[in-house]
Specification:
Blueprint lengths: L3 E5 L9 H15 L3 E6 L16 E4 L2 E2 L6 E2 L11 E5 L4 H12 L4 E4 L6 H6 L1 H16 L3 E4 L3 H9 L5 E3 L19 E7 L7 H10 L7 E7 L4 H11 L6 E4 L4 H9 L1 E6 L8 H9 L3 E4 L5 H7 L3 E3 L3 H12 L6 H12 L2 H20 L1
């Protein structure tokens, strides 16, 4: 039986991206499921976001050497409890390869939570390093007790890289906020939150869909997120090229109360990504009860469509344009309550934590026998 888990991710206390946010949601889920959780991190990294550590979750700084993508833990075994399950976050990173080697050497079981890193689209974008990395990455996955993925479509992605790797499926949980969206408070704009990764997040097709609509039927779009290889300036240029400056604002990252006000004041939240293992910003918007517009391209898309929990359209420009037109016409409000119910019924912390533990424990029993 798993009683202790050590979650290792160098950016755990400092990052503001999807992996970091998901890690802390899982720390909370596992704590509520009755497991002692400790988070291991690199204390040298600059703080991008103040991190609120969940009550009952411990943190431990780990000595690292090297910089950037080549930074790796030093004598990680000194920080590990041999009776705990080590969980490695992300994929195609040197620090996980080193951590897995340490765990194997000291007979400590480890699991991998790739956060969508093995998606076929991601692997295609990594062609330059594929030959170098994939042999090592395959070994990492095959020797893991479990590869934790968020939805069934990811199983094929993992097995294309590492046939035979043991997988467990459990979606990241999300707490329902006390405050919920109401139709009377929306101010008529569409919100987008994320990373300005144009191709991955589908920002080009979102702006093309905006441009396809007549100006009179075009909603306002408020975008906020962190830069990605200077893509925020590229998005601003795309807005000007499409003559959308009066309808689209391209802002920086926001958090806390500012983010809450953005979502609660929106007529809808739009998630146009070409692929997505999960989508923290989308799930957060659903949890607030904000009507959401997304596509069949993301892993959650079919489930949301089947539950009537979001307006799910084809992932091309015309599909997104039809969705945006529906928002502008005020005909998507009913999705809000159904989206909040979806989070309540399918993404509770205790259910997620127990499901992950039970599936992982079953695999550990197979290894023992």
């Amino acid at each position: 039986m798993i009683e202790r888990i050590a979650m290792y991710y160098p950016r755990a206390m400092h990052g503001d991206g999807g992996v970091t946010n998901s890690l802390w949601l899982w720390a909370e889920s596992l704590r509520r499921a009755g497991v002692a959780v400790e988070v291991l991190y690199d204390p040298r990294l600059p703080i991008l976001r103040e991190r609120r550590v969940p009550v009952g979750v411990a943190t431990r700084p780990v000595v690292h050497y090297g910089r950037g993508r080549l930074a790796v833990p030093w004598h990680l075994e000194r920080e590990l409890d041999p009776a705990a399950l080590l969980v490695l976050h992300s994929g195609y990173v040197m620090f996980n390869l080193v951590a897995a080697r340490v765990a194997t050497r000291f007979t400590i079981p480890y699991a991998v939570m790739p956060h969508g890193a093995y998606d076929t689209h991601v692997r295609e974008n990594r062609r330059a390093v594929r030959v170098i990395w994939e042999v090592a990455e395959r070994r990492l996955l095959i020797h893991a007790t479990a590869v934790h993925i968020f939805s069934r479509p990811e199983v094929d992605h993992v097995h294309r890289l590492a046939p035979g790797a043991a997988t467990v499926t459990a979606p990241t949980a999300f707490e329902l906020p006390d405050t919920a969206w109401t139709q009377g408070n929306n101010r008529g704009y569409v919100a987008w939150l994320g990373r300005y990764d144009i191709r991955h997040k589908g920002l080009d097709r979102l702006l093309d869909a905006m441009a396809l609509l007549p100006s009179s039927n075009r909603p306002l779009l408020q975008m906020h997120g962190r830069d990605h290889k200077d893509s925020r300036s590229a998005v601003q240029h795309m807005v000007m090229e499409r003559d959308l400056s009066e309808h689209v604002s391209v802002g920086g990252p926001i958090d806390g109360r500012d983010k809450e006000e953005l979502l609660l004041g929106a007529a809808a939240y739009v998630h146009p990504a070409r692929w997505e293992a999960y989508g923290i910003a989308l799930v957060e918007s659903l949890a607030y009860g904000v009507p959401c517009l997304t596509t069949t391209d993301i892993n959650l898309g079919p489930k949301l469509k089947a539950a009537g929990a979001a307006l799910v359209v084809d992932g091309d420009v015309h599909g997104l344009a039809r969705g945006l037109a529906a928002v502008a016409a005020g005909s998507v409000a009913s999705y809000g309550a159904r989206g909040r119910d979806f989070v309540r019924n399918h993404l509770s912390h205790v259910a997620a934590g127990r499901r992950l533990l039970q599936n992982t424990e079953a695999l550990m029993q197979i290894e023992v026998t």
